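Q: Structure tokens for this one, please.
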Amino acid sequence: MSRTSTTSTTQGRVDHLVDAALFVFCASAMAVETTVSEKAVTTPAAYVAVVLASAPVLLWRRWPLLAGVLTMTLMFGVLETTHLYQTIAFPAVVCGYGLALRLGRRVALPAGVVTMALVLVILAIYSPHSLWGWDTVRNLGFVAVPLALGVAGHERRLASAALLERAESAERTREEETLRRVGEERLRIARDVHDVVAHAMVAINVQAGVGAHLLDRDPEQARATLRDIKKVSGDALGDLRSMLGLLRQQDDEPGAPVVPTQGLREIDDLREGLASAGVDLDLSIDASADLLPAAVGSTGYRIVQEALTNVMRHVGPTSARVRVTRDDDGIAQVVRIEVEDDGVTEPRTGTLAGTLVGAGSGNGLRGMRERAAAVGGSLEAGPRAGGGWRVSATLPIGAP
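A: Here is the predicted structure, written as tokens:
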């Protein structure tokens, strides 16, 4: 059994005990007054009427409206069988409070008006006192005060429930926001690791194949290829150490030294690795690229890096062109990035036929689109009409 159900069961037992105690109290009070009052009539019917008039107290939690109607109705039986004036209102007080507590002011107000009118009728018929006196005010107070207290309790319950609901909603929102941020961070890390590792591994794979092909025919060129592999792998390891350092860093630790964020100007650093893989790169970057926001520059660099990695992976030795321009599309300033290749220009024969990585998993193209969308841009990729492949990205910079 859960803790909630156990608590509910315990509370239900306590409520039943309280109601039973109220029933005993009301019946005992009226029975005592019947016994000691000189004006009361002590007959078996009187005591039965007293017990019946107290019974609605047992119903006020489950059927508050029914309990209120019964207690006012059975009051006439008490008045007819015995003359009680002090304790006869006790069951009505309990049931009136319960009705207002359970149903609120929308039911309590009309119930109060009807009950007060009925009290005036009872006083006019059965009371030995004048209708325009303190006795009438006191009996009307027995109606108004319990209803007012019940309405106050009902409103307090609603306010507490609303406050609890807001707190739970805020907690759910915080949890959802935390999960969303964790998901975004995992996606960002996955993209960064893919960009660094995929580019390095493709370059190493291609260069290793070239080195193996040239080992007997041109040992000096093979050694140069091995040096390129060493440099590419070293740069990749440095980038990975930087990422792992950020992931391991605690909130209270000073920032770990990291490699500066690459921008579009660093695309030229890719030329050497591409050349060793047989890719001739023609690079043209707008002079205003240095003034781009860091997020846009880094996104552009990663898109170009992945596009050129795909050239090495899927095409092999070829020519590629990268064009970076800054433009105004009438709504905002944008930077346009185009990466094109000429497709396969040499047949893949012999040892070189096995140097390409293969078809790939498709994460690179998806990652490029996600990066462009993250800064509010768009990306298109597809085959060129004259052969080869073309990647075009548009990244917004700001208002013109």
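A few notes: The CA atoms of residues 209 and 352 lie 6 Å apart. The chain has ten helices and five strands.
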